[in-house]
Amino acid sequence: MEKWECDVCGYVYDPAVGDSSAGIAPGTPFEDLPDDWVCPDCGVGKDQFSKLE
Amino acid sequence: MDPVQLKDKIYWVGAVDWDMRYFHGPIFSTHRGTTYNSYLIVDEKIALVDTVYPPFAGEMLKRIKKVIDPSRIDCIIINHVEIDHSGALPEVMKLAPGAKIYCSPRAREGLRKHFQGEWDYRVVKTGDELPLGRRTLSFIEAPMLHWPDSMFTYVKEEALLMPNDAFGQHLASAFRFDDQVDNKMIMEEAARYYANILYPFSGLVLKKLEELAALGIPISMIAPSHGIIWRKNPGQIIEAYRRWASGDWLPKAVVVYDTMWGSTAAMARAIVEGLASEGVDARLFKVSLRDINGIITELLEARLLVVGSPTINRSYLSALSPFLDDLAGLKPVNRLGAAFGSYGWSRGAVKDIEAKLEAAGLTLAGEGLEIAWVPDAGELESCRQWGRALARKIKEK
Questions:
Q1: Which residue of B has its CA nearest to A9?
Q2: CATH numbers and ranges of domains, chain B
Q3: Rounded to whole angstroms, how far apart are CA atoms B115 and B128?
Q4: Other beta carbons less than 10 A from residue B25's beta carbon
Q5: Is B39 labeled as catalytic in the residue annotation?
Q6: Which residues pair with B340 in a beta bridge?
Q7: Buried b vs exposed e over B331-343: b needs ≥16 C-beta within 10 Å?
Q8: Cβ of A42 under 8 Å from any chain B Cβ?
Q9: CA distance A18 to B380
Q10: pLDDT per residue over B325-379, tens digit each?
Q11: Any catalytic annotation for residue B17?
């Protein structure tokens, strides 16, 4: 599963880790995050993320 | 200066900082000072929207006291945690210990870390409303415009937007409104503010403008937290933000260089001549003599940035570093770049500058230009040719 990086602040979403601050379980792919999920560090939306190659 | 009424029983109670010359520590020059705008809304409930930088707490409280006893403040809206706006909060809380603090979730975390005050926080999100009596406040979260905690407050019945740092300018004045101050000066400072603070968030600015338009809320006045209040023509600054965030440009070029013994300077002047001969408004900046924030501001209009340095120790002069570092963080939108410089034996400056320009998101407009030792007449002509070729790239769109 790919990691995704926040273009604004550089936070990296790692599906293996999930996002416990928003109740996102480990193993959740980026695509399956809810539409209203925001970057836990800076608060911008999913559309501000880019896939890490 | 007395409190200034924006709307019926809505007052500016902030402070004017005529002496501020460097903001954010040493990195942002503010040649015209600044203001910290705090607003008092007197209704059945009394609300204070933002405060001021701590050294100006007394000045703000003096103004508030001319309107009401500060102990009567019921609600304090903190749109942004940065201390030039929240810094006087502890002083206000001493006088109004029962006041409730309305802010975004991230602002609450930030305020707790800044002030260790266990106050009565009411966390709000976009769409939440706070009725004051005749007037109602509504809140619009604005993460990363320009901190995670940033928020706008909107007074519905007055169509008054209080967007904190957005649409602001560092401009000290005895006057508060756009129709009282030279418009060119306000726009210069608004541009300087955008370029040096909001540039990297341009994508978010465009989204926020779309969101405001989609909400369909009328805006009769914009009262930012720095500088002049947009009363006569709030559309002017909204349109300017749209232009700046979109990367619109004019046929302008900014040539930034430094030099050791004059060879790169001679190249720079010839390049400017070449650009100008094609009708491009080319502006030359020797970086060690100039204000970096001013150069960055020029990029809001200029399509092309040309950077020159001789090679020393296999790279560019360290005099260029603060400018190039700033550029990399600010990420100008939709801009072309090119590099040039003289060298003696080994090269490296041009290659390293090009890497920096690309890291800042610029598209290289052509191959770099390098000349050994001192440019002769023929080589200066090739600099002019190089400038002319870049000018044509600008026009290609």
A1: B144
A2: 4-246 (3.60.15.10), 253-395 (3.40.50.360)
A3: 25
A4: 6
A5: no
A6: B308, B369
A7: bbbebbbbbbbbb
A8: yes
A9: 58
A10: 999 999 999 999 999 999 999 999 999 999 999 999 999 999 999 999 999 999 9
A11: no
Residue whose structure tokens are 């933000």 = B241
* Amino acid at position B26, single letter: P
Cβ atoms of residues B335 and B362 within 8 Å: yes
pTM: 0.96
Report pLDDT digits (tens) over B108-146: 999 999 999 889 999 999 999 999 999 999 999 999 999
Structure tokens at B347: 């090269």
In angstroms, rounded to a whole number, what is the distance separating the alpha carbons of residues B75 and B64? 14
Taking each helix axis from N to C terminus, what angle separates B321-330 and B349-359, rounded to the nearest 10 degrees?
30
Q: Which of B123, B199, B204 would best serve as a mutation to test chain A binding (most A beta carbons within 10 A)?
A: B204
Mutate one of B140, B144, B199, B201 to test the A interface: name it (highest A CB count within 10 A).
B144
Nearest CB to B106 within list A7, A8, A43: A43
Chain A residues within an 8 Å CB radius of B201: 8
Query: For the residues of A2-37, what is the DSSP string, one character each?
Result: --EEETTT--EE-TTT-BGGGTBPTT--GGGS-TT-
Q: What's the ipTM?
A: 0.90
Max distance between CA atoms of chain B, in angstroms, equals 78
Contact B316, B284 (CB under 8 A): no
Of A38, A41, A44, the CB nearest to B204: A44
Are the beta carbons of B263 and B310 closer than 8 angstroms?
yes
Residues of A in contact with B140 (CB under 8 A): none
From B148, B200, B203, residue closest to A43, measured CB to CB: B148
Integer CA distances (angstroms), B351 to B223, B285, B305, in order: 46, 20, 15
